[in-house]
Structure formats: C-alpha cells, structure tokens
Write a structure and sequence with these properties.
Pfam families: MgtC, MgtC_SapB_C
Membrane topology: Multi-pass membrane protein
Number of domains: 2
Order of helices and strands: HHHEEHHEHEEHEEE
Domain MgtC/SapB/SrpB/YhiD N-terminal: 13-134
Transmembrane segments: 6-25, 34-53, 65-83, 95-128
Shape: elongated
Keywords: Cell membrane, Membrane, Transmembrane, Transmembrane helix
Number of helices: 7
C-alpha cells in the first residue's frame, strides 16, 4: 500500500535536488564540466527513481532501485572521463556525479540528517582535498587533475630572451599557474624572438593570465604578449597575435 504523501514526496525531492545543487555549485564555481545543473539533475533522478519504488508500495523495491541507480551512474560517469595523452581527466567529475546520486538516494529515503552530512562531506573533500593534494604533489604538477591547458605567446628582443624566460619561470612558481614547457619559434627579420609557454591553470584562469600578461609587460624587452586556450598537443601559433603592444615604455590597447 502506498503510504507516501504528496508533502513527503515534495520534501524529499526538494532535499535531493537542493543538496545536489549545493555540490554542483562548488563545481560550477571551479568551472568544471559537470556543474550546478548536472549534479542537481543527477541527484533529482536518483531521488525520483527511489521515490517511485516507494510510491508503488513495494517495501523491497527501493533497495533494488538504489542498486540500479549505482550502475546507471557508472555509465554516466564513464562518459565524462577523458584520456589526454598520459593524463586522465574527469575522474573527479565522475566521482562527484556518483556522490550526487548517493545524496539523492539518501534524500529519497527520508533520512535528511544523513543527507545533509553526506553533502557536507562531499563539499569538504572538494574544498579541503584540493589544496592538500597540491601540497603532496608539489613536485609533480602533471599529476594534478582538472587543470586546463593554455598557450602564452611572447615576442621580445633577442638579447632579452634569456631574462624573459627566467622571469616567466619565476612568475609561474607559485602553484596557481603551472609551467609545462617553453617552445622557441625563432627570430623574425626584425630581430625579435618569438616563443610559446605551455601553461596549466584552473579556476579563474583568464584573470590570472591577464595578471601574468600585465607583469610581463613591465619588462622593457617585451613587444607582444597574448594567451589562448589550447590542449597539451596543440602546435604553437605561427606568429604572435598582438593583444597589447609596448612602444617607448607605453602599452597601447
């Protein structure tokens, strides 16, 4: 017999969607593939499946449906895992979707305290685990997941190249911007040297890159600097795309 009332149905569904949205909000703020809507929908779907089994009055059905939800989320998580050369991206995203589904199942069961505890634990893992992981992997930046590749193209005087390279290494040693390598493109007929720096960033990457560009333009030997998104295997631009130019110590827009 169906003992689930409309009020209980709405309350449990709201709890599942709300907790999934909280998890997704942190992912959205981090600019991840699965953000607020995706995690909220995953939690909502898991909640609805378990609520359906509860609504039809089969006492053993919710447990079976929960096991099916786990299997279904496994297929969904596999779709967001990407292989990029020797690196694998999306593992954290897949695991987060799995956790959002678990939160939805808990919400559907009516254990709201457990649901809240589970949500807090997932958020704590993301918020506290990331800096701890970076602290452990400070010597192996390539092991850090979910970082996005960017290219920084520079043009400078040939005699200033070594100084600019050293400055670039210094500016990317703080951990927020990871330098993967520098490719020299060559010297053009005007005597300027062009090279490309391969960077890894997460979070608010444009603001950090603009700050890096502004810092590089303080050096008198630099003529042009530009950045763009890329993958780890993308070839550098054939020539610099001028986004700013420094002439006689003044940067023009």
């Amino acid at each position: 017999m169906n003992t689930l009332t409309i009020a209980e149905f709405v309350l449990r569904l709201a709890a599942g969607v709300g907790c999934g949205a909280l998890i997704g909000l942190e992912r959205q703020w981090r600019a991840r593939m699965a953000g607020l809507r995706t995690n909220a929908l995953v939690a909502a779907g898991a909640t609805l499946f378990v609520l359906y089994s509860d609504a039809v009055g089969d006492s053993g059905s919710p447990t079976r449906v929960a096991s099916y939800v786990v299997s279904g989320i496994g297929f969904l998580g596999a779709g967001v895992i990407l292989r990029d050369g020797f690196n694998v991206r999306g593992l954290n995203t897949a695991a987060t979707l799995w956790c959002s589904a678990a939160v939805g199942v808990l919400a559907a069961s009516g254990h709201f305290v457990f649901t809240g505890i589970a949500t807090i634990v997932v958020l704590a893992v993301h918020l506290l685990g990331r800096p701890l992981g970076r602290l452990i992997d400070h010597d192996t930046p390539g092991a850090v997941e979910d970082l996005h590749p960017y290219l920084l193209n520079l043009t400078c005087l040939a005699e200033a190249e070594q100084h600019i390279r050293a400055l670039l290494v210094q500016c990317t040693s703080g951990g927020e911007v990871i330098l993967r390598g520098i490719d020299s493109i060559g010297t053009d007929p005007t005597g300027d040297t062009r090279f490309t720096a391969h960077l890894l960033l997460d979070g608010d990457a444009p603001a950090r890159l603009e700050h890096l560009v502004a810092r590089m333009f303080l050096e008198p030997g630099i003529h042009t600097v530009e950045w763009r998104t890329a993958d780890d295997h993308a070839a550098p631009l054939p020539g610099p795309v001028v986004t700013a130019r420094q002439e006689e110590g003044v940067a023009a827009p």
